[in-house]
UniProtKB/TrEMBL annotation:
It comes from Shewanella salipaludis. GO terms for biological process: L-phenylalanine biosynthetic process from chorismate via phenylpyruvate. This is Aminotransferase. Residues 27-392 form the Aminotransferase class I/classII large domain. Homodimer. GO terms for cellular component: cytosol. Belongs to the class-I pyridoxal-phosphate-dependent aminotransferase family. It holds the Pfam family Aminotran_1_2. The keyword Cell division does not apply. The lineage of its organism: Bacteria, Pseudomonadati, Pseudomonadota, Gammaproteobacteria, Alteromonadales.
Length: 396
């Protein structure tokens, strides 16, 4: 039966990893997959993570099954991190959280959960959105449509058009919003714009699904959760998918969380039972190691502070890289205005060059970025920025 298969194209993001690793160019630059890199181009293990891992190594006394909810302590601490400790939905006991294999696992759990709530629900995603969103939800049998979001010409939000589309969406559907650090555009909603989106969500009655993969990479842990908290305080139903891959640097440990907010505590219990059923049918139980690290960090005032400090270093470095690239492009005599890169947030921006230029950057200069010209800002460093700016200048 395998003879009937046709080969799938390489993943537009992950496919770059292999190509980059195989490239022997001495000045190659990796602006592909969204991972944090230090000035030496290395993705380090955070010091707070090392300490938490040591603690786990010393104290772990069983490898028995953890159960489909994952770790109760992790779930509670992640809920507090996302919503704050005194959020009204938390105080009303309306939130249920399960640990998941990464943010992608959280999204897949959410997708199957939505399918059980309403098999005909349409999921609306921003145009553009993370390359894996559409495939992931379609794989769960959910129809995906887009709402306007990023204006490639003006490098800004199409906010009025976004709002106009949202006001056409009915109560049976789900709208996916990025909490912060929009992937791929780096263009976030302002707090005023969030307020308007929350208002329209309430008025239309659709279910918001917020994807928070970069909490702490925009302006700060609490600042980045503005939309999540505002939305959760205003609506009856909401889904939050969060990831510990980037902000804890736990990429390969695969740890994230899926939270459901329901109208009341009794409905939340029913929703949790459905979540657990869905989890059991996909992967049975989440991995435990990443959750144990995160709960050790968040559960200790000292380690949590160390984590917040290390997160700030990563955030500041990325923001510094944004300004540095804009400056160096100017210094290389590029007269196109790239200042938008310094105004955007998080790991990504679109460079705004065309597909042929992206291909030339890769084949002639060994500069790797996604075909859409999405660049991972963390891949820029003092050591490669001049070569990068020169290469961009040459293809423009
Ligand atoms: C990215 O967008 O580069 C990251 O979220 C990694 C991934 O899985 O695509």
């Amino acid at each position: 039966m395998f003879n009937t298969l046709t080969a799938m194209p390489a993943d537009p993001i992950l496919g770059l990893l292999t190509k980059y690793r195989e490239d022997s160019h001495p000045n190659k630059v990796d602006l592909g997959v969204g991972v944090y890199k230090d000035p030496q181009g290395h993705t380090p293990i955070l010091s707070c993570v090392k300490k938490a891992e040591q603690y786990r190594l010393d104290t772990e006394d069983t490898k028995v099954y953890i159960g489909p909810t994952g770790s109760a302590a992790f779930n509670e601490l992640m809920t507090q991190l996302a919503f704050g400790t005194d959020h009204p939905a938390l105080l009303a006991n309306r939130i249920r959280t399960v640990s998941t294999p990464g943010g992608t696992g959280a999204l897949r759990v959410a997708a199957d959960f939505i399918k059980r709530c309403n098999p005909n629900a349409v999921l609306w995603v921003s145009d553009p959105t993370w390359a894996n969103h559409t495939g992931l939800f379609e794989a769960a049998g959910i129809k995906v449509k887009t709402y306007p979001y990023y204006d490639y010409d003006s490098k800004s939000l199409k906010f009025d058009e976004m709002l106009a589309t949202l006001t056409q969406i009915g109560a049976d559907d789900v709208v996916l919003l990025h909490a912060c650090c929009h992937n791929p555009s780096g263009m976030d909603l302002s707090t005023e714009q969030w307020d308007k989106v929350v208002e329209v969500t309430r008025q239309q009655g659709f279910t918001p699904l917020i994807d928070m993969a970069y909490q702490g990479f925009g302006d700060g842990v609490d600042e980045d959760a503005y939309g999540v908290r505002k939305m959760a305080a205003a609506v009856d139903n909401m889904i939050l998918c969060s990831s510990c891959s980037k902000n804890f640097g736990l990429y390969r440990e695969r740890i994230g969380a899926c939270s459901i907010i329901a109208r009341d505590s009794a409905t939340a219990n029913v929703a949790l039972s459905v979540l657990l059923y869905v989890v059991r049918c996909i992967y049975s139980m989440p991995p435990a190691h990443g959750a144990a690290i995160v709960e050790t960090i968040l559960g200790s005032a000292e380690l949590k502070q160390e984590w917040l400090d290390e997160l700030k270093v990563m955030r500041d470095r990325i923001n510094g890289n944004r300004a540095m690239l804009v400056d160096r492009l100017k210094a290389k005599g590029v007269d196109r205005d790239f200042s938008f890169i310094a105004r955007q947030k998080g790991m990504f921006s679109f460079l705004g060059v065309n597909p042929e230029q992206v291909a030339r950057l890769q084949s002639e200069f060994s500069v790797y970025m996604v075909g859409s010209s999405r660049i991972s800002i963390a891949g820029i460093s003092e050591a490669n920025v001049d070569y990068l700016a020169e290469s961009i200048a040459k293809v423009l």
